[in-house]
Amino acid sequence: MKRKIILILLFFTVILHAQFTGPDGNNYSNTCNHNGFGTIVSAQVWFNTPTTDCHSNDWIIEFIDVDGNILIMTDEDWAESSPDSDGYYDFGNDLWNCCSYGSINNGDTCPCTWEYDPETSFLLIICPDC
Amino acid sequence: MKKISLLSCLLFLIFFSCSSVDDIPAQEEKIKIEGTGHDLLMGMGDRSFKKDFIAYNPYGKEMPEGRSYLIFNHLKKASGAYKEKDKHYPEIKQEINALNTSEERKFHSVAIQSIALRYLRYYFLKEDSPVAIQETIYLLDLLVEHQAIDLDVLVDAFLKVEEVISEEDRSRYYDHIVVVYNQSKASVNENALKLKELYENSEGQLKMEALLSGKLLEQKSRSIAYAEEKMNLQSRQ
Question: Domain check: are B45 and B63 in the same one?
Fold first, then answer.
């Protein structure tokens, strides 16, 4: 009898473990790629979601730029700089399109002015309406 | 015996169904306050350049298959150092030390840099204790060894410890910062106008992507200006 109970417990443990082992083998259930844009040659996100869509507060983003350098951002970084977000983000939006929600917004809704000084290498992008 | 087995199954089912039902309203509540694509776009661009953590890729423009397990297991602990301080630091440092002397050092380099940068920015650079000074020296040395390129963290760490390190180390770290400063300037000069043009001549999704790319480059230019202000590096070009 004890053996059967142990087997049942093991069965559930295995099922639960399998459910949360993602494509990279590191406990992320979802991953999504972006082919790159501007000086970003590729972008990838790994995320878990508590719901069936692309809303997540458990994620890691990796940007690779034209120089090969790598910028990684996590929900903890996002929560630190934007506390109201509590780390949540929707990877179904236009930028990532990990879920097919359709259009949420685009760059045309936010006109920005670019100022660049080659002497000091200073670039300033001002977006007053964003 | 069968009854006990069935009872165990039922208990498990009840337990898991109850927990998922309870979680959903709380999660939905949190989702209501999250942003859309533009919020992250602008949020990433407008967050302080000091909290953009860029790592040097020792593989150049290529990427190896797979990613270091450190990224998935420990990076978020380092990102959380602003609230949890050094809670996980000793164990992570031990693992980094082991990997840093192994044959897999190169494979883990991006993860090691990304973790070291966060512990410096979120914790040790804010503290003035002897331990903070000691760990700043350790992490700065580690970053220079991995040819790290995050200018503002390198500058702040260098300025914090330059009085207590040897002249040889001081010179080595300073020279590395000058190299990174010049490379960063070259990168901004090469890409700023290209991105501006791309932004001005595109629409919709492409325009948004050009803006995000520009915002990331803007962070680099702010980092250059910060380094210049703190260390007067222009004269060393």
Answer: no
The reported pLDDT for the residue numbered B66 is 85
Domain check: are B46 and B59 in the same one?
A: no
**pLDDT value at position B204?**
81
- On whether any CB of chain A is under 8 Å from the CB of B116, the answer is no
Q: Torsion angle, CA of B202/B205/B211/B217, rounded to 10 degrees?
A: -100
Residues B91, B135: Cα–Cα separation, whole Å: 14
- With a cut of 70, which residues of chain B have pLDDT below it? 1-46, 235-237
- Chain B CB within 8 Å of residue A61 CB: no
Quick one: which of B161, B167, B126 has its CA closest to B143?
B161
| Of B93, B117, B148, the domain-final residue | B148
Any CB–CB contact under 8 A between B23 and chain A?
yes
Helix, strand and coil content of chain B, in percent to the nearest 5, comes to 75, 0, 25
- Its pTM stands at 0.79
Domain containing B172: what range? 37-50+165-237
Domain stop point among B148, B178, B209: B148
Contacts of B48 by beta carbon, 8 Å cutoff, 6+ apart = A81
Residue B225 lies in a domain: yes
ipTM attached to this prediction? 0.77
Which pLDDT tens digit goes with each residue over B22-59? 343 444 443 333 444 455 555 666 678 888 899 999 99
Residues of B in contact with A120 (CB under 8 A): 224-225, 228
State which H helix or E strand residue B128 sits in.
none
What's the total number of domains in chain B? 2
Q: Is residue B31 assigned to a domain?
A: no
End-to-end CA distance of chain A: 65
Interchain contact, B212 vs A77, CB within 8 Å? no
Question: Same structural domain for residues B177 and B195?
Answer: yes
Amino acid letter for position A123: L
Interchain contact, A68 vs B60, CB within 8 Å: yes
> Which residues on A lie below 8 Å from B210 (Cβ)?
37-38, 107
Structure tokens that stand for B60 in this block: 């150049």
Contact at CB, B208 and A106, closer than 8 angstroms: yes
